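Write out the bound-state structure for fructose -6-phosphate.
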Amino acid sequence: MCGIVGYNGKNKAVDILLNGLSKLEYRGYDSAGIAIVDKDIEIIKSKGKIADLKEKIGDKKLEGTIGIGHTRWATHGEPSEANAHPHTSNDGSVTLVHNGIIENYQELILKLKRHDYTLYSETDTEVVANLIDYYYKKYKMGPIDAINRTMVRVRGSYALAVIFKDYPDEIWVARKDSPLIIGKGTDGMYLASDVPAILEYTRNVYYIDNLEAACLKKDDVIFYDLNGDEIEKELKTIEWDIASSEKEGYEHFMIKEIHEQPDVLKKAISAYVKDNTIDFTESLLTSDVLKGIDSVYIVACGSSYHVGICIQYIIEDLAKIPTRVEVASEFRYKKPILSKNELVIIISQSGETADSLAALREAKELGSKTLAIVNVVGSSIAREADYVLYTYAGPEIAVATTKAFSTQLLVLYLFSIELAKTKKQINEETYIELLNELKEVPDKIKYILDNEVKRIQKITSEFSHVHDAFYIGRGLDYAISLEGSLKLKEVSYIHSEAYAAGELKHGTISLIEDNTLVVGVISQKEIYEKTISNLVEVKSRGGYILTVSPESIPVDNVSNYKITIPETNKYFYPSLIVIPLQLISYYISVSKGLDVDKPRNLAKSVTVE
Ligand code: F6R
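---
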């Protein structure tokens, strides 16, 4: 979704803004723009990519050291120069960029029209620029008063960066439910929607909370609450490595991030396993808290939801605790019935997904304890949940998730094992056995990456023409099929469905015809014969069968093509299976010549409903 950046310091702003925007490209966008304070406020915008914006800037002399920038992911109005940000108020007193959605913008348009304002774009953002201007001129009490009155009047979500013509040395920001961080560097102050945009300049950041505002000067920032009173904030340090935001010789971020999985998983293990014991105490998730849990409700979106489905099987089987899973957009409106001792787990790599954040708030409102599984430190979900387990995947730039998915799964394996032990469902011996096996998972992933990539690359280039694919499996194999199927859809635009293998014959098997690609995921020994029977049914109707399974499962008679993964404990197969499934999607996308890191219509952080 949209990304915003800003800089107020000693250096030329234009380069910093363009560099920052290029680091936010992964979020998805269709137009971009900047505003630089020189003698006047110079605004340059363009439809398309940042390269188009750069071309438009050409050799214009932009010497200003204050500016704001934006990548727009169209919501209100088509991608066009008129709708691109920055937007200004009618007389140019207020210039701003915005990430989020103003829900009551229609009503505000009527109000502004009654006061003789004209709107020149189709956006909800231009409404905010004029509303700030309206309050600024009506009450004549300065920027913070105008911004706070606007925050009270608008409904929706926003991260705003505002320049007032009367205050050309300052950038003002305000936030509600859209991500925004403020960086303090040695040569100026920065603002951005996400860490990669400023990581090159500073690791010291402030997190601004909902309904708070701030004024960025050249070397300092002042924070305000909704009453206009100054508030103190603590400066935090970002631990992420700059190299994680660069391609480092890989052709795409997606393949780089696939290859990073062994390392980030080891990092996550070492964060939580000390001397062969799982330790969540830093997250305050003590054994007393775990003892009090009678049931679990997992809520998430997209790939994070698929992690939830995998973990449901494991918590129920291992810890014997009833566990439900729901997509966040459904959970938030269905008035869920939660028991007193229910733990609601919100899984979100970005920590900003609008539906997941709303679900978290709903769960808290209903009195449940909440646990967030989050990658982005300081994100809204991490800050609002009662307990947080960070996943330590580092920045994930490719829109389609790979390493963040894998670390979510791993952290929740640890959670399930610890819960099972606390609930006395497993003894010390099983606990150690599971931990030892889990520690082997990163090296087994590395083994797949070292040995299977070339074969997968070769076979998948043959599938770039297929129109439909099915992923089938049972139990955990079905759960991970959901992720494989989503990955294929996202990056290759091939229609794909994941089916519980036994369910296929209840209708959908009618779609199998000659050479339909069917990926059979078969790792669960107790039920593998059943899945094989389902694959035989499909093969006899012309399906082309690609299997993913460990060596111990005999698939030769059914598969047209076999991908073999190492053996592991039955619970941990999803972590290994997902690797070839990610690679299949990646190589099909690349062989179709698609933009695998930024697939069409997708956004990295979905901050609208
Ligand atoms: C798929 C993908 C999305 C996200 C979903 C939730 O590759 O990345 O399906 O998983 O949008 O995002 P988070 O985890 O940030 O809440």
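---
Residues 301-304, 348-350, 353, 356, 400-401, 490, 605-606 surround fructose -6-phosphate (CB under 6 Å).
The chain has a mean pLDDT of 94.
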